[in-house]
Amino acid sequence: MELKKSLLMGGALVAALAFANPSMAKTLVYCSEGSPEGFTPALYTSGTTFDASSRQVYDKLVQFKYGTTEVIPALAESWEVSEDGLEYTFKLREGVKFHTTREFTPSRDFNADDVIFSFMRQYDKDHPYHMVSGGTYEYFNSMSMKDLIKSIEKVDDYTVKFVLTRPEAPMIANLAMDFASIHSAEYAEKMMDNKDVFDQKPVGTGPFQMVGYQKDAVIRYKANADYWAGPAKIDNLVFAITPDASVRYQKVKAGECHVMAYPNPADLDAMKADENINLMQQEGLNVGYLGYNTQMAPFDNPKVRKALNMAINKEAIIDAVFQGAGKAAKNPLPPTMWGYNDEIVDDPYDPEAAKAILEAEGVTDLSMKIWAMPVQRPYNPNARRMAELIQEDFSKVGVKVEIVSFEWGEYLKRSTDINRDGAILLGWTGDNGDPDNFLSVLLSCDGVGGSNRAQWCHEGFNELIMKAKAVSSAEERTKLYEEAQVVFKEQAPWATIAHSLVSEPISTRVVGYKIDPLGGHYFYPVDLK
Amino acid sequence: MLRLILRKLGLLLPTFIGVTLTSFFFIRLLPGDPILLLAGERGVSPERYQELMVQFGYDQPVWQQYLTYLGNILQGDLGTSIVTKQPVLSEFMALFPATVELSVCAIIFAAVLGLPAGILAAVRRGKTLDHTVMTTALVGYSMPIFWWGLLLIILFSGILQWTPVSGRISLMYWIEPVTGFMLIDTLLSDQEGAFWSAVNHLILPTVVLGTIPLAVIARQTRSAMLEVLDEDYVRTAKAKGLSTYRVVGLHALRNALIPVITVIGLQIGVLFAGAILTETIFSWPGIGKWMVDSIFRRDYPVVQGGLLMIAAIIMIVNLIVDLAYGLINPKIRHSE
User: Fold this and answer.
1) Tens digits of per-residue pLDDT, B30-45?
2) For residue B174, which residues of chain A lie inside 8 Å, CB to CB?
3) What pLDDT sits at residue B335?
4) Which of A306, A371, B29, B37 has the greatest number of beta carbons closer than 10 A?
5) Average pLDDT, integer, range A101-120
6) Residues A140-145: contacts with CB within 8 Å, 24+ apart?
């Protein structure tokens, strides 16, 4: 009896957690998938960490407009780019307050010193904070910021100038990325004797202030009442760390969370049917592809690549691998990205024609390897299954396929090898909403032997994307990228397979939530009814 | 007794060194490395890769890395996580109490139900009760933990709404860790209802983690009891006209307990293994989940340090079990 009573009491507590009383503070609970690696975004690379840090606690000079990849002002009110594209001058917002925490009470507003500190920590090897907390700034490095930035100068308290070594049109979009979050230089100064604390107890200017963290259990935030764009509509934000996707779903059903990350594809139908859950879906900014090794015969022949592409039944893959939550891809860019060339017609699924082309090119009795990733990724929920379907498709045109796989780290490493055998399944999720972030990283001549897994270096294509990187007019860039996609389609270094749909189940009590195309979770504009 | 303890402790030292060796080299035998996993699809340039290898100290010959590691352990330094950049020991200490709390509850649950079930089955040998207990135990022993956990969540948290789905305590409460044991910390915190919330959150994970040990204990108790119930001294006790309660509860049980205690001690290892799954299902912030994540990320320092700590704890528990024999059965104490 006693036990039953306590069980009922527990039930009552859970019900109370459903925040039925409107006079109570509004607390939004987000069931996240894991613990952040830390709270200084520049040190890390995972979305889980960014969700818990940069996307709630910090601001950047510029930000993505909610639910889009459009870059809008944030801590910088405006900016100017010099004619030669080498100087970016930012006018900073005045009156922006940093959070007051147990460790730190700011004595001044945000200014140029904070911007200089945040970038110089990553840039300058001799900076007192450079080596703190491991000192790995992988995004800063991989976005080539080190070679790109010549200097960062403080013009006055509210003006900062970035001088570049070469014109780089995606620069502004880069500054909206998580690694570019702005920290308080004053807080860093105060923590000089205890620098690790700086990275564990975050102080930012963002819409939420972190108030508590228990690893693998919970993170608590409260709304920043002094937020420069006005306080958030909710009073508290809680991350309930829940590693298992089925359990996250049960928590949403039981009213223990309002928003959950990364649902199980198998649960989607039940979620659609649940009247207390609003299943939001949107095309993700990603692409899954099969990359041939274009430096190796017979894949060095574009006609052979094209023929193989025609042998793949993409619709069958969308049904079987993505369970319908995906869209067949015809370009290396996702359709929600600016610069996407919708005029391009995809290669038809035509095994007969494919076989004829292969025979005409003298390719008979071809045996090849297809590499299948050992992990689930947003752009490919089941690479093994996808590889099996392609194996079957290829067998219909007389091509024998052996499927191979390696441990994920090994897979990534071996696949960069120029002498890699066969074709590889891989993909990409955008970082900053700029086409350059797909085309340059994945298909430029510089990427051969690295992130360009097709080992494809095409002069015409490369020239187009390099030119698009250097000009600043959006119109001109769009044109260049559209042309580049035409070259891509003719040359077919990849079979573009699919862009996946991103699904996010939220409680029907949540108002104003939007899916972020870049995969983040933001709660500033969200309300509860 | 003191000599016994010292001798057992002396045996621990080589075991300990063996554990450092295996944990250090096995994780390195796995393909893949932490830097590549950190970089993901984006990749990392060969120059940057080399730079990071130097920074993490992986450019040194492996034996030298091992000696450095061993030297650091002797100074109480288990290293720093590559992923979170936090000291391994402090992460372990923050998470370990949650695992202990859950494991202790699970083993108590298993013993409190398993011992009487085993005794009853032995006394009623061949009867319906015996068959029921043994069949249930077999089912419990074969239960896949993940499936069992989800099933209980769907039934008790989803449909009946008696228990919370997961976590250690309701999000209404914020309990600053003092001991790290939620049941104790909630009592210390004086927040009304917090303790019951913690108890409520413990119920399902305790049942799930305790199921296999419960089955093992019940079966072991039954067979140990059956063995001693046939002994001469038990027959003598019965012949003296003692009540069944005294015969079974005093004369037989005391001797039957020895193998049972061994089994309970061995279950500690099983509990740690089971905790990996149980902690994942119930979002329980313990070391099981932490270890698995670290293996996937090839976070060498965490895997090494975590394994070492777990091995040390299992060794200590086994030592205590060894000593407990002596307490239960004076014959063992004297023969040593």
Assistant:
1) 877 888 887 778 778 8
2) 212, 220
3) 54
4) A371
5) 96
6) A140/A42, A140/A179, A141/B48, A142/B39, A142/B42, A142/B43, A142/B44, A143/A174, A143/A177, A143/A179, A143/A431, A145/A174
A247 vs B166, B285, B298: nearest CB: B166
Closest-approach residue (CA) in chain B for A32: B283
| Model confidence, pTM | 0.88
Cβ neighbours of A277 (radius 10 Å): 19
Residues 273-312 of B with CB under 8 A from A: 280-286, 289-290, 293, 298
Cα–Cα dist A335/A344, whole Å = 12
Give the Cα separation of A516 and A504 in Å (integer). Answer: 10
Which residues contact residue B151 at a Cβ distance below 8 angstroms, ignoring those fewer than 6 apart? none
CB–CB of A451 and B165 under 8 A? no
CB atoms within 10 A of CB A257: 28
Query: Are the CB atoms for A280 and A415 separated by under 8 Å?
Result: no
Residue B28: count of CB within 10 angstroms of its CB: 16
Backbone angles phi, psi at A438, to 5 degrees: -95, -55
SS (H, E, C) chain B: CHHHHHHHHHHHHHHHHHHHHHHHHHHHHCCCCHHHHHHHHHCCCHHHHHHHHHHHCCCCCHHHHHHHHHHHHHCCCCCECCCCCCEHHHHHHHHHHHHHHHHHHHHHHHHHHHHHHHHHHHHCCCCHHHHHHHHHHHHHHHCCHHHHHHHHHHHHHHHCCCCCCCCCCCCCCCCCCCCCCHHHHHHHHCCCCHHHHHHHHHHHHHHHHHHHHHHHHHHHHHHHHHHHHCCHHHHHHHHCCCCHHHHHHHHHHHHHHHHHHHHHHHHHHHHHHHHHHHHHHCCCCCHHHHHHHHHHCCCHHHHHHHHHHHHHHHHHHHHHHHHHHHHHCHHHHHHC
Residues near A377 by Cβ (< 8 Å), separated by ≥ 6? A288, A383, A427, A429
| Predicted local confidence at residue A138, as pLDDT | 86
For residue A30, the chain B residue with the least C-alpha distance is B171
* C-alpha distances in Å from residue A3, one per residue of B111, B181, B185, B190, B204: 19, 21, 21, 21, 13
Provide the token pair at B256. 């039957």
Strand A149-156 versus strand A159-164 pairing type: antiparallel
Closest residue by Cα to residue A45 from A137, A122, A131, A180? A137
Span B185-190, mean pLDDT? 91
Packing angle, helices B2-29 and B62-74, rounded to 10: 140
Which residues of B are less than 8 Å from A138 in CB distance? 38-39, 42, 44
Q: Please name the residues between 45 and 74 in chain A that touch chain B, using a CB distance below 8 Å.
A: 45
Residue B49, token pair as written in the block = 């890769």
* Rounded distance between C-alpha atoms, residue A13 and residue B161, angstroms: 11
Q: Measured between CA atoms, how close is B20 to chain A, in angstroms?
A: 24
Residue type, B190: D
Q: A277-283 and A494-507: which strand pairing? A: antiparallel
Please check the confidence at residue B196 and state whether its pLDDT lies above 50. yes
CB burial of A372-392 (b: ≥16 within 10 Å; e: otherwise) equals bbeeebbbbbbbeebbbbbbe
CB A184 within 8 A of CB A109: no
User: What is residue B13's predicted lDDT score, i.e. its pLDDT?
Assistant: 84
pLDDT by residue (tens digit) across A209-230? 999 999 999 999 999 999 999 9
